[in-house]
Amino acid sequence: MNRLDQQGWDCTRSELTPHVINELKSTIYREGAAGSRCLLDVAIVNQTAALLRARLIRQSILSERSVAIQAIAFDKTPSTNWKVTWHQDLMFPLAHRATSPGYTLPTVKDGIDYARPPRAVLETLLAVRLHLDDCDETNGPLRVAPGSHRLGILRNSDIASTVEHLGEISCLAESGDAVLMRPLTLHASSVARAPRHRRVLHLVYHSGPETPEPWYRAI
Predict the structure, then answer these.
(1) How many other CB atoms are found less than 10 A from the CB of residue 198?
(2) How many contiguous H segments (helices) and E segments (strands) does the chain have?
C-alpha cells in the first residue's frame, strides 16, 4: 500500500516549468487577499490543471476519466496569516442546488451552489496542492492526521480524539512540489511563525463514475 492510500497524503514533484509557476503567481493572487475560489475558468489555472492531471495519470494516481472540479488559491503573508482548525473537506461546488439522495447541507457561496456529496463520492476525490513557494515548519504548513481518510465522515465531536489517537504529520514542500491529499483526511494548519508568501493552488480531481449531481466545473 502506498503512502497516499495508507496515510491519506503524499508529495511529488509537479515538473511544471518556472514559466508556469511564475505566471500563476502573477495572475491568480491579489495583494492583501488570503485567497480566491472557483478559478478553473482562468486560462493558466485550466492549463495547470490539465498538466498535473496528465502527470498524475502517468503515475497511476489519477484515472484516465478524472476531471478537475475545483481550484482555489491560498496565500499566507504577514497581513493574511491565519489558523485553520482540524477538519475534513466535505463541501464542493455543483452546477445547481443538490436534490439527489446522499447530498446534504446545500448552501450558496458567492453565487455558486455547494453541497456535501455522499461518502462514496468523497472517496473518489483527490486534492492536489501545488506549492508555488517553499513551505517549512515556520510558515504554517499543512498538517494531517495520517489514516483518518479511512474513517469516513467524522462528527465534529470525534475530531480531537481522532487526531490525538492518530498523531499528526507536517507536509513540508518546496516550490514546484504537489502535495496530494484525500479530502476526507483530517487536516489543519497553524499561524505562520515566520510569515512570508506561502502560495498554494489547491486543485481537486474526481476520478469516480459520473455523479448524479453535476459539478460546477469538470475539465
Answers:
(1) 24
(2) 5, 13
For the chain, give every domain's residue range: 3-121+132-197
Residue appearing with cell numbers 489547491: 202
206 or 195: which leads in pLDDT: 206
User: Are the C-beta atoms of 6 and 147 separated by less than 8 Å?
Assistant: yes
Dist. CA 195–CA 203, nearest whole Å: 23
Distance, CA of 112 to CA of 188 (rounded, Å):
25
As assigned by CATH, the class of the 3-121+132-197 domain is: mainly beta
- CA 64: distance to chain centroid? 20
In 3-state terms, what secondary structure has residue 3?
helix
- pLDDT band of 200, cuts 50, 70, 90: very high
Nearest one of 11, 152, 162, 138 to 86, comparing CA atoms: 162
* pLDDT tens per residue, range 18-63: 999 999 999 998 765 555 778 999 999 999 999 999 999 999 999 9
Q: Helix (H, G, I), strand (E, B), or coil: what is residue 134?
A: coil
